[in-house]
Amino acid sequence: DVRGLTQATAIKLAQHKITVNAYRPGSLETQLADSCIEQMAAYGNVLKEEIYKGCSPKIPLEHIAKPDEIASFVSYLASEESNYTTGQSDIINGGFSVLIILRNNFYFIVKR
């Protein structure tokens, strides 16, 4: 998995003062995501906006991330400020993964 690969590579490259980190974003407002939402809406015979509206409350921070919100974190990892950070695999999803852990089973349902 990504976390194991990140940790193993970080240990291997630490002697060369190379840091290795990964990030795992959750839902993002992108053209690809929008295309998927459009397909879900068509399949469920609902408006695309209703799908977005239904997804946001399921995320503790109550919105789907904008690319800039992820980019600032990636920028930090690529900067000199993160020189002491290595072997990390951070999940950036507005707290959604916490819900999965707490609830164990979590499903999206498209209602007609």
From TrEMBL:
EC identifiers of the protein: 1.1.1.100
Taxonomy, superkingdom: Eukaryota
Cross-referenced SUPFAM superfamilies: NAD(P)-binding Rossmann-fold domains
GO MF term list: 3-oxoacyl-[acyl-carrier-protein] reductase (NADPH) activity
Reactions the enzyme catalyzes: a (3R)-hydroxyacyl-[ACP] + NADP(+) = a 3-oxoacyl-[ACP] + NADPH + H(+)
Pfam families: adh_short_C2 (PF13561)
Residue stretches spanning the membrane: none
Family assignment from sequence similarity: Belongs to the short-chain dehydrogenases/reductases (SDR) family.
Annotated protein name in UniProt: 3-oxoacyl-[acyl-carrier-protein] reductase
Source organism per UniProt: Adineta steineri
